[in-house]
Write the structure tokens for this entry.
Amino acid sequence: MKYWNKKKLKYVSIRLNQHKKLTSNDFQTIHKLLEAGYPLQTTLQFLPKDKYWIAESLNQGIDFMDLLKQQNTSIAKNICFFCSITTLSNAIQISNTLNEFHKKMVKTLFTKSCYPCILLISSFFLIKLFSNVILPQLISGFAAQQIPTYLISLIQYFNIFINLFMFLLIISILISILVCINKNIQSRLLHTLGSKLTCVRNYCSYVFANYINELEKGGISTYYSIQYLQNIDILWLKQLAFRLFQKLDDGNDLIDSIENEKLFSQEFMHCMKLRSVTQTGKATFDLFFIQQQEYWNKLLKKSLIYLFGFTYLFIGLAVSLTFQIMLLPLQFVETF
């Protein structure tokens, strides 16, 4: 009975540990050691102690790919996807390459937007403090005096703006979480916005081109790469590949099929046309990736300029309002 309880507790412990995530650094370690010639079982022993549950699971006969499928992360899903056409080491390298651009853009956006966001939130709390705490005390201390009407109206407008801004911010965060969780909503949203927003088309084109490029490096033609992409776990990309393959299967040309798709940018269409003429797939894709990086860097700088401009404008108005409130005691003294 004791042996059964110990075995049951150990099994439950491993099942709970499987919910821990493998980071990109862990996958990078596995890739380097596999490239050096170490077997997978030995490679996993070099991971941190909190990742020893992987080796224990393998000892119990659980396949490493099944463990990756339980991770539910983009890099793990990509590794599972590419492992069907190449080795585990190459699949990890490809997944790290695909994940590198997103990590770089998110990190750059976070580091550069952190400072203006802190200033903006601080100015919100400053106005809330003066309007809800300090100003009522000033009014109660000088009950016989009158507060200027324009100042009260200005404070009310600021409070309405702050409340509306915070409400929209919360709604945006909730919608973003819902879109990230629900794949169907994410796919429909991208397909709807694809015909209206250039950034959405550039994003979809960049992701699609990366997958096609990596599959072609593995020796798969563009036609079969599109067919193979129908097995990917990313729903919008899977549906995009399905629509393209249906058009190709009906006898349409690849360029015509791409031009009729809403999720492809003009730059990607030019890239595919150039590929069909010059027959230089890798060089053309490399040029397209460089153009995309320049586009996203410019878009990021432009967004940050707008963010800084809005932040400094609001801070200027907040400082002016605060200064007017701080002058009230002096005005009361003069009239007293």
Q: What stands out?
A: The two ends are 88 Å apart (CA to CA).
